[in-house]
Specification:
This protein is an alpha+beta fold and 567 residues long. Helix content is 51%, strand content 13%. About 1% of the residues have low confidence. It binds protoporphyrin IX containing FE. Keywords: Heme, Iron, Membrane, Metal-binding, Monooxygenase, Oxidoreductase, Transmembrane, Transmembrane helix. This is Cytochrome P450.
Length: 567
Amino acid sequence: MAFSEIASLALGPLTKAALIGATIVLVTELFKRLTKRSPYENLPGPKPSSSTMGYILDMHDPDNVDFHFKMTERHGHVARLKGGILGSDALYISDPLALHSILVKDQYNFRESTEFSGLFGVIHHGDQLASVWGEEHKKQRKLMNPVFTAAHVSRLSPLFHRIATELRERLKVEVKSNPGSTTTLNILDRLTRTALELISQGGIGHTFNSFDKNSKEFKEFHSALQDVLPSASSLFFIIPFLESWRKKEPVWLRRFVASLGYVIPWSALRRFTEAVNVMHPVCAKVFYQKKALFDEGGIAALANTASGGRDLATLLMQANAEADEEDRMPDETVIANMSAIILGGQETTSGAMSRVLDLMTLDTDLQEWLREEINEALAKKNGEPLDFYELNALPRLDATCREALRLFAPVTFVWRETMKDAVVPLQYPVTDTKTGKEIQEILIHEGTTVYVGMGALNRSKALWGPDAAEFKPQRWIGHHAHESTIQNIKTPGIFSNIMTFLGGGRGCPGMKFALLEIKTVMSVLLPTFRFEKTDATVAWRLGITLTPFVEGKEEEGPQVPMKVSLM
Ligand code: HEM
């Protein structure tokens, strides 16, 4: 029996018509894509390694961070990313003026992608900063921005100092227990625990007892944090549907479908479902405990909690209670934002702290230079801890943090969707590859995906000079931030004229919090320990954040080994 005969028996005429219809649409779409000229074909850009997938594989290749870091050097500040058979061209932009339009001036026209909103909406069980845009985003930021100000963050200094001291004391025990008082250890593990305590105690007023090696709560929560984004990346073809799915009614049906994540034999889906269901209940529990206290005794009752009522969630609840009716967030939005604060602030910071220490093992003179400054400052205070303002007044420590965050932005790029056509001016004109003429502005078409190259702009030689790719903390000493570029060019970055914490309405609210964490930990560790390199080479691989692995030992998971000894 011929295939067509079997098909006509098996399928009803309606199904057959639908199949034929779908095939025609698919073939027409494919034909259109293959024959349509890209509006960006005259722009320079990398040749994709796959003609089917286009730029996607190169963009996300974990072992090719240089694709991003060397983008401006190789292709300039606006590059065409050639799409594959199934995808259109995108733009990779690291031009400071163009990014000012995209992130600040015309920010509502360049919105977070629906994939991003959907994914983070599901991860945090509801709308929060990372999944909303436009007016709703503005409304949430209006309530949340005051929570992250220097005045509030500075009050966390004693708490951060206490946590950093706990790390120091535990490290001392580890080092002393080794003959010769030097031990080789994976500092990333210790700093991951520290960062989780800093963000959980400072962010939501909760402890995971992270320093306790047997802490079940730490293990569960940390593996959820570690797993959630990598497992999501394996679900890439369902991610585009999450945004509409997460709002579908009735709720019981959505819950039922979500519970299938546990039974469908697909390990990435299962890991994702498990991670998502670990994080939310913790934040909800902490929130309702706080709410009960607050309802009973007001803000004074919250002041008696472990963080002294200084944690960000308490401040947010207070701001929410005092806000006008129309500005107020529902409980589930506050909970989702607590979850977003933890996810946004954990891996980024543990990575950044590990990076700073790793850099110091590569340059022992730098380490000594910093130690000297911290010791002098401590001596002036008779050994009393340095607070937020005193730490910020240390030029060497400040310069080292700026330079590490410039050269090694933990988040290398973000992406945006273009809502309608927009003309964007350029700081650095690009050369038309066909005519050789200079292009001073580009027309970005509706629907174009725009990648914001933060790591690329941070390393642009046009901006930072020929030594842009070198680690030179001295470049910051004695300069205002914008003077550190060679022509006093301003970027839209909210911190130090670099793009690491992004810029505009979606710039990282946790920037001051993160800097206080890094500086406090350095000020506590450096006077006590010497850090030296081992034979291992640490390579930072690209993910949502940069993650360190030992070359040849990737299967052992992320690590930053170093020798630690007492001073
Ligand atoms: C070195 C550490 C950090 C780096 C490099 C960093 C970087 C960033 C970047 C690049 C974004 C923008 C993401 C996007 O628009 O797609 C962002 C957003 C965000 N960050 Fe951070 N971050 C850090 C630490 C923190 C900390 C400690 C917190 C919390 C205390 C935090 C909370 C957030 C939140 C809630 C958002 C979403 C903001 C919004 O969409 O309006 N981050 N961060």
